[in-house]
Amino acid sequence: MALKEPKIIRNKEEMRNWSRTMRAQGKTIGLVPTMGFLHQGHLSLITEAQKHTHLIVVSIYVNPGQFAVNEDLSTYPSDFAGDIEKLKSIPNGVDVVFNPQNLYDYGFEREQSGVKKGEKEGGIVSCLEDEKGRGIGHETWIRVSELEKGMCGRSRPVFFRGVATVVAKLFNVIEPDVAVFGKKDYQQWRIIQRMVRDLDFAVKVIGSELMRDEDGLAMSSRNVHLSPQEREQALSISRALFEARSAAKKGKNICSELRRSMIESIEAAGGKIDYVEIVDQESLETVEDIKNGVVVCVAAWFGKVRLIDNMEIDAS
Ligand SMILES: Nc1ncnc2c1ncn2[C@@H]1O[C@H](COP(=O)(O)OP(=O)(O)OP(=O)(O)O)[C@@H](O)[C@H]1O
Ligand SMILES: CC(C)(CO)[C@@H](O)C(=O)[O-]
Ligand code: BAL
């Protein structure tokens, strides 16, 4: 089968023109937003998107607006040429790779805006703002106020407003019919669904299943930063999730007990817990005992790498 070479678009006006031209020809468009350094988890989202639309756009953009200044924007892995090769290897390929260079440009040079990254008195600012919290001409942020409060939102204070805002921008530029997000980032997927419902975006949001490596580790671009020892230790996360699921199946359904034993086993393996939460799949509110429709979510540090993982669990 001939490999399909995706068209690479780096400019938001050109992207919107392409989408509108295709729509005028009756084509539907599926979007898979990513931050690049693609792995099989990302490719599975593309395969899912191909089931729903004629054309596929994959965005590759490491969004500074979702990183606080003390987070890992500067070390986030990237390999654009490698990503293109992986995309070419997928059956039927993708049509466009959107790698915007001007997503937050509003007609003046960054240098002239005097923006420095820094820490605002009393709070952390994002990598799109200066030390007084001013954006580089960007001052509109979307907040999904309840869903963003717990779990990742607690330890990454600007993360979800940055994600919701950049996804809204991508939707406005690309105007997709369908967008696919991975359930690996469970809270992110739920937040995007809620944003789309609340703001009446004409986009169908699909949550696609979490992909694991053979040894159980959830695939993640950041895994590349794990040393072999940390990678081994990190397997404690998925092990703890599988154990919690089988304990629940055997009737152990008190969440505080399940949480405690998960925390103990991840810490015993050398992980530093950010959170272990058992929450309702839709509201993401904490639940006390396992019932249908809960999800166990974990974030933990191994060395300098923060990993997240989760598992949907139903009662026995
Ligand atoms: N293992 C996975 N299974 C399914 N979807 C995934 C997986 N990993 C990432 N995704 C999805 O791919 C999309 C892009 O994610 P992103 O580019 O941040 O990759 P990532 O591997 O999650 O990186 P990291 O967690 O290191 O930031 C998101 O919707 C995310 O949920
Ligand atoms: C959705 C997303 C592409 C927004 O930058 C990012 O948070 C991600 O890759 O999960
Ligand atoms: N997949 C989530 C992107 C981030 O951690 O910034």
Give the spatial strand order of the biggest sheet: 1-4-3-2-7-8
Percentage of residues assigned to helices: 25-40%
Quote the average pLDDT: 93
- What's the number of domains? 2
From the 3D coordinates, which CATH architecture of the largest domain would you assign? 3-Layer(aba) Sandwich
- What letter string, H or E per element, gives the SSE order? EHEHEHEEEHHEHEHHEEE
The shape, in one word, is globular
Q: Radius of gyration, rounded?
A: 20 Å
What is the tally of beta strands?
Answer: 11
Q: Count every helix, treating DSSP H or I runs of 4 or more residues as helices.
A: 8
Write the layout of secondary structure elements.
Layout: E1 7-9, H1 12-24, E2 29-34, H2 40-50, E3 55-60, H3 80-89, E4 96-98, E5 119-120, E6 123-124, H4 152-155, H5 159-174, E7 178-182, H6 186-198, E8 204-208, H7 228-249, H8 255-268, E9 272-280, E10 294-302, E11 305-313
Parallel strand pairs: 1-4, 2-3, 2-7, 3-4, 7-8
Antiparallel strand pairs: 5-6, 9-10, 10-11
Helix pairs in contact: 5-6, 7-8
Bound molecules: adenosine-5'-triphosphate, pantoate (PAF) and beta-alanine.
